[in-house]
Amino acid sequence: MSDELKLVFDEPPQRKKVPKHLADFSPAERKEFATSFGLPGYRASQVATHYFSHLSNDPTTWSDIPAEMRQNIADQLTPKLIELVRSITCDNGMTRKDLWKLHDGVLVESVLMRYTDRVTVCISSQAGCGMNCPFCATGQAGLTRNLSAGEITEQIVAAARACADGELPGGPTRLSNIVFMGMGEPLANYNAVMRSVRNITDPNPDGLGISARSVTVSTVGLVNGIEKLTEEGISVTLAVSLHTPDDELRDSLVPINSRWKVKEVLAAADAYEKKTGRRYSIEYAMIRDINDQSWRSDLLGRLLKNRNAHVNLIPLNPTPGSKWTASRPQDEAEFVRILESYGVPV
């Protein structure tokens, strides 16, 4: 139980509240948000069209709003929530990591990745994380605070704008996939994440009009969150960060396991798959001599062989000073071979 005490589900008290943003609200609520500033409700729809359909953050181009009102309306309905600190590129510019500063100076990251057939952004849902996984730098940093739906959505809209403006090699393109796999445990910030998901999937002009099938929500295994997600009626891809098939090791690698064991997590994922028809993903960070043994692959194969799931093996990216590192190539190859012998897609 000592591990469980280290888990943090509620964010610490915040001195400065995040400014409210159009993206914090449903389409119906946005009109009320506008009227709270003494604006007609239809201004919210106009701004939403510029924001979601045209990805515009330049109110001087909002020609359907009187010129003298544009900046004020933009400041009220779409206040600046994130500011780019720096970008780091690799893979000949096809991967870009952006560091964002929030209104209170807190820093979060997003990663934009262009492949031959798609462009994916990996976004943060919390600053820090309260799940305390020992091999994860974010988990070791602890939870600073939840991000608002506006702050999450701003990362996505910024990525969509970068694609449309041709900031990645290969020219202008369209953002196609969003994965909630950056900083934080998405299901521990459930309401803001679900508002953000609907901002992604609602059709223009209420949202970005990206298919729910192109959205992945990850979790370390918050069973109550998976159960709520199952009832949402929105078929995103669920990714479960399992990292080992046995409870004994998972209790230390993923401390939430002290509350919900492997079989409970998989049962919740199965219920999600049954309701949505969506195959789920098992995320597995390969850690040398810790979770990459053949017997663990065998156990994982037996657990998953009759489930509609696939395994995503991730070479561990060691954090500075960590005692853990990535698996040997031959051990990873054997791990894959055993899983495939059970018919489990890897």
What would you say about this model in short?
This protein is of the alpha/beta class and 346 residues long.
How is the topology of this model organized?
Layout: H1 2-5, H2 27-35, H3 42-53, H4 67-77, E1 82-90, E2 95-102, E3 107-114, E4 119-122, E5 126-128, H5 137-141, E6 143-146, H6 149-164, E7 177-180, H7 190-201, E8 215-219, H8 223-230, E9 237-241, H9 247-253, H10 262-276, E10 280-286, H11 294-304, E11 309-315, H12 329-341
Parallel strand pairs: 4-7, 7-8, 8-9, 9-10, 10-11
Antiparallel strand pairs: 1-2, 2-3, 3-4, 5-6
Helix pairs in contact: 2-3, 6-7, 8-10, 11-12
Descriptive overview:
There is one protein chain. The chain is an alpha/beta fold and 346 residues long. It has three domains: 22-77, Orthogonal Bundle (DNA polymerase, domain 1), CATH 1.10.150; 81-206, Aldolase class I (TIM Barrel, Alpha-Beta Barrel), CATH 3.20.20; 220-346, Aldolase class I (TIM Barrel), CATH 3.20.20.70. Helices cover 36% and strands 18% of the residues. The strands form two sheets. Strands 1-2-3-4-7-8-9-10-11 form a nine-stranded mixed beta sheet, covered by helices on one side. A two-stranded antiparallel ribbon has the order 5-6. Strand 3 and strand 4 (119-122) form a beta hairpin. The two termini are 33 Å apart. Residues 1-5 have low confidence and may be disordered.
